[in-house]
Amino acid sequence: MICDGFPDCPLLVDEANCTVCQDNELSCKNHQCVHRTLWCDGKRHCSDSSDEWDCVSLTDSVLTVFRTAAEYQVCADEWNQELSNLTCSQLGLGPPSSVSMVTDQLVTGRRRWLHVHPERRERGTALQGRLEKRSHACHSRRRVSVLCSREECGRRPAAGLPPLRQKRILGDVVSRQKRILGGRVSRKGAWPWQCSLQSGPSGHVCGCVLIGRRWALTVAHCFEGREGADLWKVVLGLNNLDHPGGNSQTRGVKSIVVHPRYNRAVVDYDISVVQLDSEIEETEFVRPVCLPDISQLPLPDSYCFITGWGHMGNRMPFKLQEGEVRIISLSQCQSYFDMKTITPRMLCAGYEAGTVDSCMGDSGGPLVCSDASGRWTLFGLTSWGSVCFSKVLGPGVYSNVTHFTSWIQQQIYTHTYLSD
Question: Where is this protein localized, as stated in its record (predicted)?
Answer without folding.
Answer: Secreted
